[in-house]
């Protein structure tokens, strides 16, 4: 048996991490290293003064060991106060705050280094601490709670990475009105010691925090709050996401606690946050979506706008963000379903898995998608989410089959049942609208689509369908803004090629040939096999006097679509059939020139 060359002992570990070190390295690496070393010396000095020692420095992290939990807490308060004072003496963008996690437990000591779960717990705890703040475990809290004036706020239990059992996390602040104290939003978190709830069944919840208004101007703060409120309202209209109420999420104006802590307090899987800045007659909004389960950034976007009409600006930015967030959360949840055995998927997860296959747009994946949707339907035949996906599936097949009446009947059946389940869902209204479009009844379609957009103004599919209805009625100029709005609301939509194709048609009718060519090219870049976009481009090239290019495009068209018949274009249900003849004539110019 090998000789044991380590010992075990009870110890209190502080894990200390520099916040923003990588950012400062990107600005000035030599200055960042010097600033870190200066603060590291302060931390080492404070730890030594209270009977501890530092060990295991790695990058921008420091570990410290103490025999007494009370002395560890005092040392942490001491170096935090000294670092805060030092940071106050430098420019704001060059400050380097530190956060710390403290845990008490059994450790293995070998050659001066410490190992074990309790060391790892300390490292995980510091991720929960606010900037210049402390997070401690329940184990440490039991040792110090009655022997110090510190104040503690319980965050609840968390499962920490690579730690088998849940750990209760508390935020510690100086008591007695001096020094650092828990961040204000923590007052919103119940201090009761109740175990962390298991994740609720059903779709995930999303919380929109109040957007920060930079610049100190009151109107910027008002506008920032207004945009966040618009996003809450818009997300609630998507109907498949659970949205945390403003009265709860707006208590977290200070996001220094981090997404994992705030998400756990609110019961939200996703957190939306943002910062609004005004510079003269322009504003800039930076917004992001984070996954609270792992702290990772899912999506971020910057919006620059001229400040003209505040209310119109709020509507535009808010609707764009809602549309993008809807799709980004959907995409993230589709990927998450692959972490669950298919036989254990809940109904809403079956829908997300089916959507993942639908988005691949292959014949085989489309059939697999239907299998998932039908399985979800068998499990919950009254789910509006399931009914809407089935309506979409049959609409998509009807579109590919140029208006198959049996498929359209099924779309209508599922859409009407979905409306019975949820009359405030925009999706079934939109599905009923596109049925009317496919059946050559665009005026009837407009009524359904108006209702859909009244319920959810950010619904890009309904906006595109409204443009198509107006186009079929001969109102190309009125249709164009709807297609452009769709581009703004959903710039990365997988079915964007179709919207661009419709926009190219509208430009054809107003005889803006350069716009037809450019828009058709954008559609073809997304879906090279989309016959309609290339068909329109060929006609536009001929009308522009670019016959040689038109002939080259025609050769590609005939290779890709050898069975093409002009009946495909005659089928399009324009109210005035001269519109069909106009498009056909443009295309035939190229054929007659060969």
TrEMBL record:
Which regions does the record annotate with the repeat TPR? 426-459
Domain Guanylate cyclase residue range list:
12-126
Which InterPro entries does the record associate with it? A/G_cyclase, Adenylyl/Guanylyl_Cyclase_3/4, Nucleotide_cyclase, TPR-like_helical_dom_sf, TPR_rpt
Q: Which UniProt keywords apply?
A: TPR repeat
Keyword Isomerase on entry: no
Q: Which Pfam families match?
A: Guanylate_cyc
Domain of life, per lineage: Bacteria
Q: Which PROSITE patterns match?
A: GUANYLATE_CYCLASE_2, TPR
PANTHER family noted in UniProt? ADENYLATE CYCLASE, TERMINAL-DIFFERENTIATION SPECIFIC-RELATED (PTHR43081), PH-SENSITIVE ADENYLATE CYCLASE RV1264 (PTHR43081:SF19)
Q: What is this protein called?
A: Adenylate/guanylate cyclase domain-containing protein
């Amino acid at each position: 048996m090998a000789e044991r060359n380590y010992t075990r002992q009870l110890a209190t570990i502080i894990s200390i991490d520099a916040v923003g070190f990588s950012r400062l390295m990107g600005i000035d690496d030599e200055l960042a290293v010097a600033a870190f070393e200066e603060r590291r010396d302060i931390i080492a000095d404070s730890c030594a003064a209270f009977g501890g020692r530092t060990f295991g420095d790695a990058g921008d992290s420091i570990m410290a060991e103490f025999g007494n939990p009370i002395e560890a807490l005092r040392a942490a308060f001491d170096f935090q106060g000294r670092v805060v004072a030092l940071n106050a003496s430098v420019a704001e963008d060059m400050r380097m705050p530190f956060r710390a996690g403290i845990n008490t437990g059994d450790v293995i000591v070998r050659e001066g280094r410490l190992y074990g779960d309790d060391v790892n717990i300390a490292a995980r705890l510091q991720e929960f601490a606010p900037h210049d703040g402390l997070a401690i475990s329940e184990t440490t809290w039991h040792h110090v709670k009655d022997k110090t004036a510190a104040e503690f706020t319980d965050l609840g239990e968390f499962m920490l990475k690579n730690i088998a059992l849940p750990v209760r996390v508390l935020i510690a602040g100086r008591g007695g009105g001096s020094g650092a104290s828990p961040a204000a939003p923590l007052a919103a978190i119940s201090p009761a010691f109740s175990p962390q709830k298991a994740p609720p069944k059903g779709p995930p919840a999303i919380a929109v925090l109040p957007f920060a208004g930079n610049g100190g101007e009151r109107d910027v703060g008002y506008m920032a709050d207004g945009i966040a409120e618009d996003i809450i309202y818009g997300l609630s209209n998507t109907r498949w996401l659970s949205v945390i109420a403003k009265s709860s999420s707006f208590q977290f104006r200070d996001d220094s606690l981090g997404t994992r802590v705030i998400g756990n307090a609110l019961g939200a899987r996703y957190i939306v946050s943002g910062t609004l800045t005004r510079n003269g007659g322009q504003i800039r909004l930076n917004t992001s979506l984070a996954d609270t389960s792992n702290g990772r950034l899912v999506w971020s976007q910057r919006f620059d706008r001229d400040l003209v009409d505040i209310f119109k600006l709020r509507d535009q930015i808010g609707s764009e963000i809602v549309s993008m967030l809807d799709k980004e959360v959907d995409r993230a949840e589709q990927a998450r379903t692959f972490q669950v055995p298919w036989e254990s998927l809940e109904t809403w997860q079956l829908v997300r898995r089916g959507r993942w296959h639908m988005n691949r747009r292959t014949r085989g994946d489309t059939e697999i998608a239907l299998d998932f949707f039908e399985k979800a339907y068998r499990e919950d035949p009254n789910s509006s989410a399931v009914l809407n996906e089935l309506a979409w599936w049959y609409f998509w097949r009807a579109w590919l089959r140029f208006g198959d009446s049996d498929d359209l009947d099924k779309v209508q059946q599922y859409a009407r049942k979905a409306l019975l389940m949820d009359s405030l869902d925009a999706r079934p209204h939109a599905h009923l609208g596109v049925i009317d479009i496919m059946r050559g009844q665009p005026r009837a379609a407009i009524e359904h689509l108006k209702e859909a957009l009244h319920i959810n103004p950010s619904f890009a599919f309904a906006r595109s369908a409204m443009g198509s209805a107006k186009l079929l009625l001969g109102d190309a100029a009125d249709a164009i803004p709807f297609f452009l709005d769709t581009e703004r609301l959903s710039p990365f939509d997988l079915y964007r090629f179709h919207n661009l194709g419709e926009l190219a048609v509208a430009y054809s009718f107003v005889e803006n040939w350069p716009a037809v060519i450019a828009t058709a090219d954008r559609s073809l870049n997304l879906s090279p096999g989309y016959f309609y976009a290339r068909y329109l481009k060929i006609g536009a090239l001929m009308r522009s006097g670019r016959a040689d290019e038109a002939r080259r495009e025609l050769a590609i068209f005939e290779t890709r679509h050898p069975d093409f018949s002009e009946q495909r274009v005659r089928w399009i249900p324009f109210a005035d059939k001269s519109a069909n003849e106009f498009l056909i004539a443009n295309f035939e110019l190229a054929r007659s020139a060969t």
